[in-house]
Design a protein that fits this description.
The chain has 131 residues and is mainly alpha-helical. It is built from 4 helices and 2 strands. Strand 1 and strand 2 (123-125) form a beta hairpin. The protein is flat and about 50 Å long.
Length: 131
């Protein structure tokens, strides 16, 4: 099976991802070649983080809008948990924040015509979702 025969490459985001792969992979490879000369442990750790992030980003976006929703939900949950810990929110408030962070990307993917986004980035329903 050729790479172009895969169904997920028919998604609207796949061409951008496939064009970005050589650039991202090349940049990580070139910097990885210089990594043995670097004695700074923090720089090595950051390089490994970028490698993992690049694989996650390109991998999820290759699946198109569903992959983008999964990525956005994951990042939303991580950000919400960090915010809850930083501010010291109560458990119930944190649960509500995490639930919204998880649900909103999937609602935006599944029901894009029913959502509108304000300048603050908070999704609000234009019409009842049940109609």
């Amino acid at each position: 099976m050729a790479m172009t025969d895969l169904a997920y490459l028919a998604s609207p985001l796949a061409p951008e991802v496939t064009r970005a792969l050589p650039v991202v992979g090349g940049a990580l490879a070139v910097t990885g070649l210089a990594l043995p000369a670097v004695r700074n442990a923090e720089l090595r750790s950051r390089w490994r983080t970028w490698c993992v992030a690049a694989v996650l980003l390109c991998g999820t976006l290759a699946f198109g809008p569903p992959g983008a929703a999964v990525l956005a939900a994951g990042l939303g949950i991580v950000g919400s948990l960090e915010y809850v810990r930083l501010v010291g929110l109560r458990r119930w408030d944190g649960a509500v924040l995490c639930t919204v962070s998880l649900a909103l990307p999937f609602l935006a993917w599944l029901l894009p015509d029913r959502l509108t986004f304000s300048a603050a980035g908070v999704g609000t329903a234009k019409k009842p979702v049940t109609s």
